[in-house]
Amino acid sequence: MLYEGKAKKVFATDQPELVRVYYKDDATAFNGQKRGQIEGKGAINNQMSNLLFQYLAEHGVPTHFVEQVSERETIVRKVDILPLEVVVRNVAAGSFSKRLGVLEGTVLPRPLVEFYYKNDELGDPLLTDDQALVLGLASQEDLAELRTRALEVNRLLQERFAACGLALIDFKIEFGRLPSGEIVLADEISPDTCRLWDKDTHQKLDKDRFRQDLGGVEDAYQEVWRRMKGGLSA
Ligand code: TMP
Ligand code: ASP
Asked: Which InterPro entries match (predicted)?
């Protein structure tokens, strides 16, 4: 094992440029202060993330995905994860609503891109572009590329989720750098990392059910995966 995170483990393979990711059922919130298990989450997040990474790749977004090897395991290209979490928001929720006093559910006039410093000790603070540059976390070119890619991912994901009757409220993505220097989409895209609401009822179908103790956590993950697998069925 090379690394164990809050939701995944990463293992070496016999090829130095590839690693194997194992998705756990462990769930944390508020920078690890709240801990629990979401039964079946690892299998859903792995398969859903792979489905979406393949969809994004087909639409011109390069990703780390190589091959799913089991319900919970995937081979991905080994990358150096950039120390920035990129959040895109379409509708006010979560920390945006709380910090800025905007009612949850308020539709934003355009998608908003935010960068956070990926640093658990500091609690992943929000970063301005200038702070990212001064800290040497990314170059101006990198930031511009991440912003463009994130907005493209947002457009594609919104379309894909809308086809399943889901509104994409916001999401967090991470990028990694290949040995060639190329930046690719990495980590995962799942109900852990996206806010997804039923488009008609606005029922929350994501990790906010765990974060906010809303109950029905497992059912929400299963419902999202059922709709995704079914393609157009809502
Ligand atoms: P936030 O509103 O708490 O800033 O979260 C924005 C989005 O990022 C939301 O879809 C949940 C996701 N997210 C993560 O994937 N990991 C995290 O550690 C946090 C705080 C948020
Ligand atoms: N990743 C967060 C944590 O550090 C949880 C969250 O998604 O809110 O526990």
From this structure: SAICAR_synt/ADE2_N, SAICAR_synt_PurC, SAICAR_synth, SAICAR_synthetase, SAICAR_synthetase_CS
